[in-house]
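mind reviewing these tokens:
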Amino acid sequence: MTPELKIAGGDGTVTVGKVICLGRNYRAHAREMGVAPPREPVLFMKPASSVIGDGDDIMILPGTGEVHHEVELGVVIGERCHDVPASEALGKVRGYTVLIDVTARDIQSAAKKAGLPWTLAKGMDTYCPMSDVAPASSVPDPGGLELRITVNGETRQKGNTADMIWSVPELVEYISHRMTLEPGDVIATGTPEGVSRILPGDTVEAVIPGVGSLKVGVKEK
């Protein structure tokens, strides 16, 4: 089923398209992963089938190994666009969402070591929880938002989008120069430091004040 996100404060919905994710867009997170900050954006993708909503559960396959949370600001595209300059980028945004990039870290690490893609580690079912969409008009500055995530009430990540290496306008420009963005596409802008393991039975809550919140459980499939 094609996932749909509600528009906060309204009765509309957004049908999710492709989810384009940024790797290592916070310098401190790059350092904690043992790599240098990249010289240009690192992109990977999650399928729309990985999206779940508030109150749903992250399902971990037995034998997966370590699975990590990564809280991120999601940017929801509002119209078809290509080659958008940064100065016009925010005008192409329909809204923003709280997004958790769930990562099967052992699988990702093995893929990196072998020089293989990360798709399986990032794209399994339930590996992209998202909140309702806050309209762009209610978020005047996506470059100064606090991100927080707790696991069972304990704060694990706390950061600010002001610390992103590439801002939202810069990301829209970079990505749209290389691939056409469609309505409902989501840009996951990267995560601050503090990623850690989640286990079956955990409750994970992510919050971006001014955008929304998202609470999901963790279960073994």
Q: What stands out?
A: The mean pLDDT is 95. The first strand starts at residue 4 and ends at 6. The longest helix spans residues 168-178.
